[in-house]
Design a protein that fits this description.
The protein is mostly beta strands and 318 residues long. It contains 1 helix and 26 strands.
Length: 318
């Protein structure tokens, strides 16, 4: 009887282990690999455009034709460049009227049609067409509740036309419905879960989920399309992550404090880092604010502290 009981318990234990392995086989983390990451400098874009020298270049966006758009924050204007980085148009100037700005920062396209601009100190998100003609705006303040909103930073969108605007000062994400009216907010100041601290850029992935650069908490936070917290990445990797982009389903994060690009797996595991010293460049990145992928793995970085844009190629060696 004793031997039978022992055999039974051994069999049961093996069965449980086998079931656990089957249950977990689809949720095993991606195995880390060793990558060598470099950013090969090609050229810089700086100097005078339309009578003013680039000053604190910040947000970047690119359209389907390869035209590049820049929020030249220090000059309170937007610049448009063609695919060869020749300046073709500018709008702006300090002010509160349509087409003027007070420290524009992050910019993005709403599903490829219109350019959305965080006009930070005017507390609004302005919408322009691809020719930089004013369309309309989302107001980022409430006269009845002045503390409801802070200043807008990153911008993204759902498939249903909602606009998600990151509120850096109030550490939240503000959601506007598809007719531009305030719907609700998520986040709130804190250090864990879906809470935020000084959030910066936000993007949406192919699954419709949102990735927020939770800069003050030194991490990336993922929310589903309904605003529910899913997970976080990189708290022991970053110092101040400000911008993020997807590359072959992996993540590339720009860290302003480190002045480098950091490469993560789709599950958030560290794969490599470029470092602030760029191959072929005599300068280091200084307080960069944003970056975008161009064609052929080329990257454009807003090197804000050096008042320039940097063009280069991301080199990834497995």
């Amino acid at each position: 009887m004793r031997n039978y009981s022992l055999s039974f318990f051994l069999f049961a234990a093996l069965l449980l282990l086998s079931c656990a392995a089957v249950e977990n086989k689809n949720v095993l983390p991606e195995i880390s690999k060793s990558f060598k990451i470099d950013f090969l400098f090609e050229k810089e874009i700086k100097g005078t455009f339309y009578g003013a020298t680039l000053l604190k270049p910040f947000g970047l966006a690119v359209d389907f034709e390869g035209n590049v758009y820049l929020a030249d924050a220090g000059n309170n204007r937007l610049l448009k460049f063609d695919s060869d980085f020749k300046a073709t148009r500018k709008i702006g100037g300090l002010g509160t009227t349509e087409g003027s700005f007070n420290y524009p920062t992050f910019i993005t396209f709403d599903n490829g049609l219109n350019l959305m601009v965080s006009d930070e100190k005017n507390q609004r998100v302005a919408r322009f067409n691809s020719q930089l003609q004013y369309v309309d705006e989302l107001l980022f303040f409430d006269e009845e509740d002045p503390l409801k909103f802070g200043y807008p930073s990153g911008i993204s969108f759902t498939n249903y036309g909602e606009t998600w605007v990151v509120d850096r000062d109030n550490s939240q994400v503000v959601i506007f419905n598809n007719i531009g009216q305030y719907s609700h907010s998520l986040g709130d100041y804190g250090y864990s879960g879906g809470q935020l601290s000084s959030p910066e850029k936000i993007i949406r992935d192919r699954n419709g989920e949102f990735l927020v650069c939770d800069a003050g908490n030194k991490r990336i936070v993922r929310y589903d399309e309904y605003g529910s917290y899913l997970n976080e990445y990189g708290r022991d990797i970053f110092e101040y992550p400000v911008a993020i982009a997807l590359h072959n389903e992996r993540m590339v994060v720009l860290d302003a404090a480190l002045g480098s690009l950091i490469y993560l797996s789709k599950n958030g595991q560290f794969l490599g880092e470029s470092g602030s010293k760029l191959l072929g460049d005599k300068s280091q990145l200084s307080n960069p604010s944003d970056f975008i992928f161009l064609s052929n793995d080329m990257i454009l970085i807003a090197d804000t502290g050096n008042d320039r844009l940097v063009v280069g190629k991301l080199i990834i060696e497995e």
